[in-house]
Amino acid sequence: MIDDTTLIFRIAPLLLVAGTTLMATIVVVGNLTDPRSNLQYVERILSMDTTFRSPRLMWRAIRSPKLQRLAFGVIVLLETAVVVTGWIGTVILASNLRAGTDDWHDAKFWAALALVLALVVWFVAFEIGGNEWFASWQSDTWRAAEQTPRINLVTLAALILLAISN
User: In angstroms, rounded to a whole number, what is the distance separating the alpha carbons of residues 108 and 120?
Assistant: First the structure.
């Protein structure tokens, strides 16, 4: 039997995993119900058409509609993977809240995978890819990473709390 303090330190990462998964779910639903506006977002970032248009950076631009749609599809696929693994992880963690240390540790896999995938989407794809590689920080309209630092901090905090919980 676990004590109340241990339970609290298990509930915290559970709530953060569930919250991250809920956010990803809302994002995926938005991408599926209004793909045009979200595709337009990806197109504008990849084309770099609202950046400072420095000749030294514009070689990075992707103007091919096929490649832009492919990038959008990959993003939605990765976000969907966050959703699926996140809800599986949330359910497994919730069902193991009062389990012994070894069972709790084993229950972390899907939640940890979801959080790592979330970092791939919002840190690697948006922060590094969109904001830095495609220089969307230069755009007044199509900033790839306007909200991602906050998302990434919460995701990283969730991953750390999950890792250290026992």
Answer: 18
Nearest to 30 by CA among 72, 92, 63: 72
Burial class (CB in 10 A: 0-12, 13-18, 19+), 162: buried
pTM higher than 0.70: yes
Query: Contact at 8 Å (CB) between 121 and 80?
Result: no
Tokens of 3: 């004590």
Q: What angle do CA 28, 34, 40 make, to 5 degrees?
A: 100
DSSP 132: I
Owner of token pair 């990434």? 152
* pLDDT one-digit tens code per residue, 68-121: 999 999 999 999 999 999 999 999 999 999 999 999 999 999 999 999 999 999
pLDDT (tens digit, 9 = 90+) per residue, 121-154?
A: 999 999 999 999 999 999 999 887 778 999 999 9
Cβ-based neighbour number of residue 163 at 10 Å: 13
Tell me which DSSP letter residue 140 carries: S
